[in-house]
């Protein structure tokens, strides 16, 4: 019998991860009035906790929650999310660094008696997740399997932790310091795709853009390089992920650069036909799933934002067919560079 199946625990949910996590919470002390939730894009944890008596549910979802029920509020991964809570529940983050930072924030700011209960499908669990939580908690154990799902339960937050996030890196070639929260792609390193894009622009005339957008900005390296290259331009770094925009803001601040930060999906909120230059290193993974077509949403956003004659410079893995999509969605596209790994293109808005 798993701890989630103990007598007296009566909770079911369509989503097996929600079920195993909430049942574990009920079996180990119940649901308090204030709960912090991680990774709840559809609001399923929040709805369940409110039904079970929670009065306030604070939700951190790196990519943003689609719909939160009344009584739930969105937070960043910061003090206000975890302050004094006795229970943190949710899904295990998709990367170890993201889990490490989540554990660090919970251990620093939650109640000393906090229980952190995070679940996943069994095929996605690895022992290094226990180690990541163990950086910030003295006790980490796994629940037994339930509907092919399990939870990790962390208690006994370590006192006196020295904050490690955002991580700090440096790119000597660009004379830039980088700041990276746990969920940010490539961490504080110089991403190879970003390097390929910047190298391909050597000697390319991009004019004198008044508005530059780093679309899907990650840690903001392209935005910061643009702010240096075009000091009179308005530079916007935008991404849907909290970890990305928080990292980009910290990177810009560390380098004393003026960059506007916009958390939005595909540049929502940037007016149509107002942008002169877009730099884009689009993802082709959505969490653990490969989706080579997801970049098309960013290309459609670029076509909307760019003025006629405006340009988007894109880097992508050479096996992907992004060039033909850029031609179809945005306009005439020419290749700036191509290697076995990366292709860099320049597309002019028709």
TrEMBL record:
It comes from the Bacteria. SUPFAM superfamilies: S-adenosyl-L-methionine-dependent methyltransferases (SSF53335). The keyword Methyltransferase applies. Residues 176-345 form the Methyltransferase small domain. Residues 81-155 form the RlmG N-terminal domain. GO terms for biological process: methylation; rRNA processing. Transmembrane segments: none annotated. The keyword Ribonucleoprotein does not apply. Keywords: Cytoplasm, Methyltransferase, rRNA processing, Transferase. One of its GO terms (molecular function) is nucleic acid binding. PANTHER family: RIBOSOMAL RNA SMALL SUBUNIT METHYLTRANSFERASE C (PTHR47816:SF4). This is Methyltransferase domain-containing protein. It comes from Gulosibacter macacae.
């Amino acid at each position: 019998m798993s701890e989630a199946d103990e007598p007296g625990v009566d909770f079911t949910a369509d989503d097996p991860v929600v079920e195993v996590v909430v049942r574990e919470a009920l079996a180990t002390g119940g649901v308090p009035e204030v709960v912090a939730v991680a990774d709840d894009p559809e609001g399923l944890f929040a709805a369940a906790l409110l039904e079970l008596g929670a009065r306030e549910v604070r939700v951190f979802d790196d990519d943003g929650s689609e719909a939160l029920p009344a009584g739930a509020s969105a937070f960043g991964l910061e003090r206000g999310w975890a302050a004094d809570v006795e229970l943190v529940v949710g899904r295990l983050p998709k990367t170890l660094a993201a889990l490490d930072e989540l554990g660090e924030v919970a251990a620093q700011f939650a109640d000393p008696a906090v229980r952190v209960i995070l679940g996943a499908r069994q095929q996605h669990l690895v022992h290094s997740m226990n180690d990541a939580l163990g950086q910030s908690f003295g006790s980490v154990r796994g629940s037994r399997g339930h509907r092919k799902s399990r939870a990790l339960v962390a208690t006994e937050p370590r006192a006196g932790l020295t904050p490690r996030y955002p991580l700090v890196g440096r790119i000597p070639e660009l004379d830039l310091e980088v700041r990276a929260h746990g969920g940010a792609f490539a961490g504080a390193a110089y991403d190879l795709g970003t390097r390929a894009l910047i190298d391909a622009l050597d000697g390319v005339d991009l004019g004198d853009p008044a508005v530059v957008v780093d679309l899907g900005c990650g840690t903001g390296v392209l935005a910061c390089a643009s702010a240096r290259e075009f000091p009179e331009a308005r530079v916007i770094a935008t991404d849907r992920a909290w970890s990305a925009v928080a990292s980009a803001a910290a990177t810009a601040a560390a380098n004393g650069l003026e960059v506007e930060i916009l958390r939005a999906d595909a540049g929502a909120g940037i007016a149509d036909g107002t942008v002169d230059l877009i730099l884009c290193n689009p993802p082709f993974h959505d969490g653990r799933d490969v989706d080579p077509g997801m970049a098309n949403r960013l290309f459609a956003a670029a076509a909307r934002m760019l003025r006629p004659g405006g340009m988007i410079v894109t880097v992508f893995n050479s096996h992907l067919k992004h060039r033909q999509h850029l031609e179809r969605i945005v306009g005439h596209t020419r290749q700036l560079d191509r290697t076995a790994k990366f292709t860099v293109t320049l597309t002019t808005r028709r």
